[in-house]
Amino acid sequence: MSDSIRALVVEENEEGKPAASLKELSISDLLDEEVLVKVAYSTLNYKDGLAVSGIGRICRKMPMVCGIDLAGTVLESRNENWQAGDRVLVNGFGLSEVHWGGYAQKQKLKTEWLTRIPDAFSDEQAMAIGTAGYTAMLCVNALQDHGTEPDAGRILVSGASGGVGSIACLLLAKLGYEVVAASGKADAKDYLLSLGVSEVIERDELDRDAKPLEKELWAGAIDSVGSKTLATILAQTSYEGIVAACGLAGGFDLPTSVMPFILRGVTLRGIDSVMAPQTRRQRAWGDLARLIDTNDLAHVYRIEPLSNIKTLAKQLMAGEVTGRIVIDVNA
């Protein structure tokens, strides 16, 4: 087994700011965890973009190997529940924040972080879904658990051309919901319609100062934007409707009032994908394996080499990325 590992590492530069670079590490450099995994693919998520670009101080320890996702094959294990040859994935659990993550050719991981890759997916496809798709499924599960059936009314997806939004649209349409997609990308309409949405609206219709209550438009919603967008969605959600909130790309503030909650009984359900328990993760990945047609998934992502990660991160933060980016850590 080769001892050399290429990884994307963030360290503090001379100015005390985080700076990312590709480095050669050895297996002995990896942290001492129970399972050694040969990583095949990772992904590029919003949090990854913040970490790699240095715009956000995501890495709370340095040096830090970035990448909040990974998929690959177990090489060695000190735990009887995991054997060499097992195909595994990890989403979240503090990877790229406090634990070394997926932008490395090999990684040592805690057993409680590991999820088996469903037989329906290759490693590449598992990362095409990744944290974004798994988070989207958690949001859809929240709508289902609330009792929101496909005949309840229209479901809004904000940030629809992004990773979470793309998979959310695909899943909801597959389940028979009428989906309205909100996007700020002028050229994303055809892409979103191809995912099965019935209508595409402009981001500016939501990203504004909302009244405490507005016309009831949505039986439910999945929001990855936050701030004014989420406030407007809440003001427009129908009686006893639900909004699953999973992101803050537009800001972490929420300029709203209690009126949607006490006058319309609206539920705001926060979705955390990072520390979700394994029972919830296994349900989500089981549903993803059942619902996602890999032929449809092929239209949602592209593969890029780890060597391009810094350029890709800048593009993501500039809002120039549509769909999902799978990172080949060996290219």
Question: Descriptors for this entry?
Answer:
Quinone Oxidoreductase, Chain A, domain 1, Rossmann fold, 9 helices, 16 strands, about 25% helix, about 25% strand, globular
Instruction: Please indicate the count of domains.
Output: 2
Q: What fraction strand? A: 25-35%
CATH superfamily of the largest domain: Medium-chain alcohol dehydrogenases, catalytic domain
Strands, total number: 16
Which value, in Å, is the CA radius of gyration? 20 Å
- CATH uppermost class of the largest domain: Alpha Beta
Q: State the helical fraction.
A: 25-40%
N→C terminal distance: 19 Å
| CATH level-3 fold name of the largest domain | Quinone Oxidoreductase, Chain A, domain 1
Report the major sheet: 7 strands, mixed
Quickly give the CATH architecture of the largest domain.
Answer: Alpha-Beta Complex
Helix count?
9
* SSE sequence, one letter per element: EEEHEEEEEHEHEHEEHEHEHHEHE
What best-fitting shape do the alpha-carbon axes yield? Answer: globular
Overall mean confidence score, pLDDT? 94
| Structural class based on helices, strands and sheet pairing | alpha/beta
Report the uncertain regions. none
Q: Your description of this structure?
A:
- 27% of the residues lie in helices and 27% in strands.
- By secondary structure, it is α/β, with parallel strands linked by helices.
- It contains 9 helices and 16 strands.
- Helix 1 packs across helix 9 (309-317), helix 2 packs across helix 3 and helix 2 (123-145) packs across helix 7 (278-291).
- The model has no long low-confidence stretch (mean pLDDT 94).
- Strands 3, 5, 6, 7, 8, 15 and 16 form a 7-stranded mixed sheet that branches.
